[in-house]
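Researcher: Here's my situation. A collaborator sent me these components and asked whether they could plausibly form a single complex. I don't have experimental data yet, so a predicted model of the whole assembly would be a useful starting point for our discussion.
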Amino acid sequence: MSVWDPTLSSDATLSAFRDAAQRQYGAERAQAIDAAVQSLAHDVWLVAQERLDNLAEMPDTMINPECL
Amino acid sequence: MAQPYDLTVYEAAGEIAARTLSPLELTRSLLERYSEVEPVVQAWQTLDPDRALEAARASERQLGTLEPRSLEGVPFGIKDIILTRGLRTTANFPPFNDYVPDYDAEAVARLRLEGATVMGKTVTTQFAFADPPKTRNPWNRNRTPGGSSSGSAAAVAARMVPAALGTQTTGSVLRPAAYCGVVGFKPTFGRISRHGIFPLGWSLDHVGVICRSVEDAALIYDALAGFDDRDPGSADRDDPPVFDHVMERPDAPTLGIVRDFLDRADPDVRAHVERVAAMLERAGAQIREVRLPESMDTMIAVQALTQQIEATTVHGHLIHEQPDGYAPVLRAYLQAGALAPAGAYLHAQRLRRRFREKMWDIVDHTDALLTPTATDTAPDPSTTGNRTMQALWSLLGLPAITLPSGLSGEGLPLAVQLAAAPFQETRLLSAARWVQSLLDPMPAPPLA
């Protein structure tokens, strides 16, 4: 399961991020970064709630296909 | 008569141009002031008195033969993530303690071209993030000066230098300026080159100015603004200077007071800003209440996510090479940021574009939006304060300015923030000058 899933609740998102942090940094370091993980999970979850139905709403970072 | 160290940039430049104050006299006065108050405030990472005096002498020679430039002989503090030729730039990162750049950041070079001198490097939080610095708030040493341009704001408030450069990715110019009772101005994204500055979030980073009046902000902005092809975010525009227009007698502006901001402010701050708005309305301003077009929580999350992922990318190699050099909050922030999925960043950029288009419609129907600059007065020094009131202007690239607007019951500075449509610096600063003319002048902090 991806750590970023728009269907996840914020608690599940946080849990997924904590698991990922533990896998990447080990339990001790993951505990030390827990506040940052909580903040990130909250932001990712909030952003994920926003739907963008208009495919024209592209980011400014879009690459011009003529350049590819 | 005011001591030279107590002059604003506009006043000092005017007296120097009139030959009633010499650059050397001004620099010496500021260095004496530094000796008196720096032990308490701790605003400087590296002071450069010898070269500041040498530059003052060079300005005096210039005045002997040529017309003064706009900032002739006026000393500046430079935030310590901005490169300065021959003067160490540490970013408050111990492994960089001995790094001495061999070139100036473009913003510093432009200041020097207008005759300004560099007095030294002001304290930044590490890499302009959020680990609390050593600097103390000149109004109360048990309060934070805010961050990340902590030393720039504290040094200007304490009259150790009339102006300083800062940078803002979330709220790092306006919030410390507000907490320290001075003016902070961040122009539209792309108006001031970031060439030669350590990045934090490349799509959010702005150069800003901390000073003591709107006149100062306009004068310095004219020296700094302009296209630079070495900054990929630089705006290729040829806008005219703002100073002369801002100095004309401004009309009473139309201001949009943003209810979403007031709802989030501490009750005392909210009541203060409502009183200021009522006072401005009585003086002739048109005050309209406006609402943000989207959830403020989501807009703030988009800003935070964008910054975290860009910062994690910027520091990707360095944090692996020198993890122990990092301060604890930044280290954890970057390590957590590495867990964010790519799709979250791209989704945030799409939302950001939608927010921007909707906000431009709202802000363009006013001369400026009016909000509190910060949710609160300066908190204790375990943090650099709450960033939510400044984040949207960084996310959307809109120009914004904070003006000191009074003192709280605890004797701490209160402030109002004005933000305008992109590239409307003249409109914003004209409105700000009108507002400034109705606010009581902010006294110097009680450091003596």
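Model: Some features of this prediction you could bring to your collaborator: Chain B has a mean pLDDT of 96. Chain B touches chain A through 30 residues (CB under 8 Å).
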